[in-house]
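[agent] plan:
  1. take the single chain provided in the ticket
  2. run structure prediction with default settings
  3. attach structure tokens to the ticket
  4. add a short note for the reviewer (M.T.)
[agent] executing step 1
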Amino acid sequence: MKTTSHTWMAVCASGMTAMATFTASADQPATAVRPEKHYTGTVVSVDPKEHTLNAKWFLFSRKFSLGDNCAYVLLDQPAGAIGDLRPGEKVTINYQDASGVLVADRVTQEPMRSEGMVTAINPGNHTITVHVSGMSKIFQIPDNCAVVLRDDKSGTLADIQVGNHVTVTYETPQDKPTARQIAQTSATFTGTLTAIDLGERTVKAKTLFDTKKFDLADNCAIVINGKADGRLSDLRPNDELVFSYDEVDGINVVNRIASTKTAPQAVTAKQ
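[agent] step 2 finished; step 3 output follows
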């Protein structure tokens, strides 16, 4: 008899526990797990107050609601905030589609970079022209544009010269390429030209204590009278020259050669 009573009490307790669990679950809002999606485009506008972001890719645009826990990863700020976003940045947005409402939980800035030779600098118009893959690209230079030199040293626009090989990190506010950073990281060597091999496209130069051999890059700029349209045959032994080069596995690859005795550099150059 006692065994039957204990069994009945256990069954009742189990039923009450199940009912309490069901009631507690019913009181909590259901959270549907939706597949994560990705969208890459350019920021058109951002509203920190409304927590919204508009982005576009070519002619198609989308509006995203930025979640309370949305993470912002920028090029110079791994832990950014919504206020750090600005029009013209290329971003990848992780989001969920909640019945047509696009809820973003992560916004990651993607770098846009162009590498090439500087063919013109116009300080008055705040522009720099770079020859990239057979075409010229003009970039606006804002006052806060960073200039990075070798060994991550900070520089100024005056450190960038026609013929330099540069990497431009840029954005496109109002569809205008705008430089945010210009990197010119080549080493320099100033010396007297001692040998030229037109067939092998190599040159040698020396200082009082050092001699270097340089292999000319395909796009090596030879600057004569401020213009980067010179040829290797225009150089003469005993010329005093400045070489901008990168060392690649022990080989000095030169991308710019300029005379130390030229007149003040012009701001444009033929390509």
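[agent] step 4 note for reviewer: The CA atoms of residues 34 and 98 lie 8 Å apart.
[agent] ticket updated
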